[in-house]
């Protein structure tokens, strides 16, 4: 029996074309707006401190977006370079010693420094792995970002009950900026091969944008022994 093709009305085609255009333009437009807003924000902080003779806008009479960001990146890199030599380390040590002796400033500085060290240091394993845990009930699985093994008092308390626990971050969909810090037994986590970036895409899209996956080891077929 020949199937009769379904005719699509002009209004439906027009709506589909509009939605396709939104899907194409919205991510590009929002990304460009965020980048432009970030550049303007950095420039508004950095440019007032740049001497006029070093500002190219004084010579070309044209606003150069991102020049403040470029200066900030170069300045931060130079500070990091100086901080790696002996004189720089001594200066940093003196500055930290002063901050550590200030009653109200010390806890704030130590907390912020510990946070940045745990995130930015090369040896840090924070949120470099993605896993699955049973949540909120057995048989239901949720994707988490693995932070690190339990440390400090948390590790001590877990060792008392004979449990090796891992700290994981369970973000909601589609906004991963908030979530839950959970301590899960290490043997209860199914580790995934996907990167945290791919995990974030999967999370934000509500499961619609799944990363490509190729098993590391393919299952070899069982040879047919009936003919032997």
TrEMBL record:
The UniProt record lists the keyword Transmembrane helix: yes
Protein name, per record: DUF502 domain-containing protein
Signal peptide interval: none
Membrane-spanning parts: 21-42, 62-82
Keywords: Membrane, Transmembrane, Transmembrane helix
PANTHER family assigned: COV-LIKE PROTEIN 1, PROTEIN LIKE COV 2
Keyword Electron transport attached: no
Domain of life of the organism encoding this protein: Bacteria
InterPro entries from the UniProt entry: COV1-like
């Amino acid at each position: 029996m020949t199937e009769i093709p379904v005719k699509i009305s002009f209004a439906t085609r027009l709506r589909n074309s509009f939605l396709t255009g939104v899907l194409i333009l919205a991510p590009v437009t929002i990304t460009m707006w965020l980048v432009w807003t970030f550049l303007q924000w950095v420039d508004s902080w950095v440019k007032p401190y740049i001497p006029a003779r070093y500002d190219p806008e004084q010579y070309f009479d044209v606003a150069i977006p991102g020049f403040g960001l470029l200066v900030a990146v170069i300045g931060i890199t130079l500070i990091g370079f100086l901080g790696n030599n002996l004189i720089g380390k001594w200066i940093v040590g003196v500055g930290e010693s002063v901050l550590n002796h200030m009653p109200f400033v010390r806890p704030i500085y130590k907390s912020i420094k510990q946070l940045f060290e745990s995130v930015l240091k090369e040896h840090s394993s924070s949120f470099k792995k993605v896993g699955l845990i049973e949540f909120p009930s057995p048989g239901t699985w949720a994707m988490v970002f693995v932070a690190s093994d339990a440390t400090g008092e948390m590790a001590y308390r877990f060792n008392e009950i004979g449990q090796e626990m891992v700290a994981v971050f369970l973000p909601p969909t589609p906004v991963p900026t908030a979530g839950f810090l959970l301590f899960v037994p290490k043997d209860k986590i199914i580790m995934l091969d996907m990167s945290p970036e791919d995990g974030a895409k999967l999370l934000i899209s509500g499961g619609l944008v799944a990363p490509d996956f190729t098993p590391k080891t393919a299952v070899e077929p069982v040879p047919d022994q009936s003919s032997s």
